[in-house]
């Protein structure tokens, strides 16, 4: 716990330009935002096989010293053990509320992103398969894509999402955004004036949804209906990403599209 944060700490994700998908980009950006909020420098390294390098099989993962930790929840705990926490100022009721909203985001937004990527046939054929398999030669690119599609669809079946229509999924996203908008209100962050890991998680998903080119704009339009959520994303982008190094190793989500700032 007493060890200082190393200068060579690295975050691994898939290739930005050609490979990474919406859900993984959102998860990676959430971790980057969290570490920025903790004022802990991280270098982003893009690898075609990042998913297979990860101890959990999920991205992003961080390599800090001799430790490798994947996904936001475990990374938050790891960083806390090193003496950095965004939620220490919350009381027990607030901490429970924060965790409930984080569960909501993961259960609704992340699941909707996965559904769109792997269960919407047009998106699968035009975006997901070409991007996911892009680093690999034929037929490996198709084999890996179909393998991942089968895995995600099996999960969707297990949680009762396999039979949903795209309209129902978009309605779930709208309900999630409505709940987040109500909780945020006119505050700068979800818990008053200081960001927590909830702010990092929400920013990662909403910013990526707002800035990723999909087949249609239906998903991003759900978020745009809530002006305080789009203003929230702009605020975090300005405070924690604008003005930092502009090279590809630091500012996330630029590859998949544009900044929210006009």
UniProtKB/TrEMBL annotation:
Q: Which GO terms describe its biological process?
A: mitochondrion organization; protein transport
UniProt cross-references to SUPFAM superfamilies, sorted A to Z = GST C-terminal domain-like (SSF47616)
Domain Metaxin glutathione S-transferase stretches? 174-236
A UniProt-annotated Pfam family: Tom37
The main location class comes to: mitochondrion
**Which keywords belong to this entry?**
Acetylation, Membrane, Mitochondrion, Mitochondrion outer membrane, Protein transport, Transport
Q: Which residues form the Mitochondrial outer membrane transport complex Sam37/metaxin N-terminal domain?
A: 28-148
Oligomeric form and interacting partners: Interacts with MTX1/metaxin-1. Associates with the mitochondrial contact site and cristae organizing system (MICOS) complex, composed of at least MICOS10/MIC10, CHCHD3/MIC19, CHCHD6/MIC25, APOOL/MIC27, IMMT/MIC60, APOO/MIC23/MIC26 and QIL1/MIC13. This complex was also known under the names MINOS or MitOS complex. The MICOS complex associates with mitochondrial outer membrane proteins SAMM50, MTX1 and MTX2 (together described as components of the mitochondrial outer membrane sorting assembly machinery (SAM) complex) and DNAJC11, mitochondrial inner membrane protein TMEM11 and with HSPA9.
Purpose: Involved in transport of proteins into the mitochondrion.
Q: Which family does it belong to?
A: Belongs to the metaxin family.
* Protein name (database record): Metaxin-2
